[in-house]
Recover the amino acids of this structure.
């Protein structure tokens, strides 16, 4: 990474963003805008359109019209593939510009942002572009006078509601398979991090995606998000965000057209370290990175450290050392390990979790405070709290910040029972050199992704989906395609 190039990009003025509807950038119908506050220094970066319900309805109508006339869905697979491949190339060609824009908006450290945002988004779009002409229907095992065929058809209009922590990556997880299968999409980016995703959507048009196939509307979740959720003309909602909003989306679906709702709702993922881990030093460093990168604003963050009691004190000391060695600060400095907290609201919530942990008997070993106040931005020291009980708030509620709670265990059974004692089930890890134990942990922990002797890094070839209140349906891999197709049976008498 070239610091001077980043510095040039960070000095650029950011233009005001409008919605993207029917291939055009347009303002909100009532002209209203929202300030975009940069978490780096608390200043106003630019404005976006503060969408109204009627803006959202216009975007949905445009997506519906595009779907019905087949301008995308009826293109030959090879043609759709070409456009999506070109889009991936354009994202890559503009990677640094997109990454810097995104970081100024959401605060992720640039090293991670570059890889996880344009890097991963381009790879995801390319993966589904390459896959789309290899997805076949089926012929059923019927009596000889019947032909039973199973077609995979696009569902129609997909509403994709995206959070602020990795807008481009998570956006691509929905857009890639939805567009590859011929659907139209209406995007609703987060109000606190929309810019890079809006720019990425514009690049899709540049790549040749027909107008109307991808529309994007900014604004408050309770206004434009609700209008998307309640629409009679949206067939699928694909969402990543909080449980509270996920619940609302299910209600919206029930109150409107019973659209399919796929939810990825974060977690309270356990990172379980046994005394027989192959390399405890490595485990400590990875445990720190697994919670503190992107300031803990990661759905799969290893936010609960469960440690075998016999190594508890030494291991906590090693994770603390690793955490204290991580540099917190300006996310656009290439030497920064931990960037900014996305918003003032989120920072306040994090600090509230620390207070509550202390009230509940937790011991703050390091961090626990806001730092770098003189920048005007939102920064927090990586925080480790020990003596966190099974039922403590820190063991039960998703924080989505740089706070690690530590709980000791004595036996494998107790580790599994602790791991499974939340309503969530998104990710997790176990560190052990015992092969049998490793497999027992994979089977025993109720979760979508279980790592062994590592944490994070699972790429686009494998699914990411939650169980319990972490959600349903998977992003990534070929399995994600199922969310964006209908199976249609043709039963033919020969
Ligand atoms: O989430 P919201 P927020 C968790 C994390 C975090 C908490 C709050 O614990 O602390 O959620 O974050 C849109 N109808 N995660 O407030 O509100 C909203 O505009 C339709 C975990 O940012 O769920 C945004 O685009 N849409 C997580 C998106 O929902 C609505 C990532 C997410 O915002 C809406 C982010 C409504 N009524 C937060 N209300 C993960 N799983 O990785 C809001 N939205």
């Amino acid at each position: 990474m070239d610091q001077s190039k980043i510095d040039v990009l960070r000095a650029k003025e950011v233009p005001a963003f409008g919605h993207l509807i029917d291939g055009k950038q347009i303002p909100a119908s009532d002209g209203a805008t929202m300030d975009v506050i940069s978490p780096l220094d608390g200043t106003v970066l630019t404005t976006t359109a503060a969408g109204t319900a009627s803006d959202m309805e216009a975007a949905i109508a445009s997506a519906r019209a595009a779907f019905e006339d087949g301008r995308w869905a009826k293109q030959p697979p090879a043609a759709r593939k070409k456009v999506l491949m070109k889009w991936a190339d354009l994202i890559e060609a503009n990677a640094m510009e997109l990454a810097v824009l995104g970081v100024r908006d959401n605060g992720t450290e640039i090293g991670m942002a570059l890889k996880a945002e344009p890097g991963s988004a381009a790879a995801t779009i390319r993966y589904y572009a390459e896959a789309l002409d290899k997805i076949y229907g089926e012929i059923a095992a019927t009596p000889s006078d019947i032909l039973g065929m199973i077609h995979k058809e696009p569902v129609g209009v997909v509403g994709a509601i995206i959070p602020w922590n990795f807008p481009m990556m998570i956006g691509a997880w929905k857009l890639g398979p939805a567009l590859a299968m011929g659907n139209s999409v209406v995007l609703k980016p987060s109000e606190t991090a929309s810019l890079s995703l809006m720019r990425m959507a514009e690049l899709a048009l540049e790549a040749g995606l027909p107008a109307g196939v991808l529309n994007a509307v900014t604004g408050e979740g309770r206004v434009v998000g609700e209008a998307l959720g309640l629409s009679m003309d949206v067939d699928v909602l694909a969402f990543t965000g909080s449980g509270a909003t996920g619940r609302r989306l299910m209600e919206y679906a029930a109150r409107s057209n019973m659209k399919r709702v796929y939810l990825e709702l974060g977690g309270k993922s356990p990172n379980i370290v046994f005394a027989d881990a192959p390399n405890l030093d490595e485990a400590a460093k990875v445990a720190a990175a697994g919670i503190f990168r992107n300031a803990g604003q990661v759905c799969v963050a290893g936010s609960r450290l469960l440690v075998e009691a016999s190594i508890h004190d030494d291991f906590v000391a090693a994770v603390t050392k690793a955490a204290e060695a991580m540099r917190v600060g300006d996310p656009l400095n290439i030497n920064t390990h931990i960037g900014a907290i996305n918003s003032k609201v989120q920072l306040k919530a994090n600090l509230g979790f620390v207070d509550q942990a202390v009230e509940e008997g937790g011991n703050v070993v390091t961090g626990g405070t806001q730092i770098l106040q003189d920048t005007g931005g939102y920064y927090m020291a990586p925080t480790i709290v020990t003596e966190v009980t099974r039922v403590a708030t820190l063991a039960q509620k998703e924080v989505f910040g740089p706070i690690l709670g530590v709980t000791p265990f004595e036996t494998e059974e107790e580790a599994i029972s602790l791991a499974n004692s939340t309503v969530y089930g998104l990710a997790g890890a176990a560190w052990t050199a015992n092969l049998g134990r490793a497999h027992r942990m994979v089977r025993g922990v109720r979760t979508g992704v279980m790592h062994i002797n590592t944490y994070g890094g699972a790429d686009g070839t494998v699914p990411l989906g939650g169980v319990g209140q972490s959600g349903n349906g998977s992003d990534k891999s070929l399995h994600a395609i199922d969310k964006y197709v209908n199976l249609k049976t043709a039963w033919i008498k020969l």
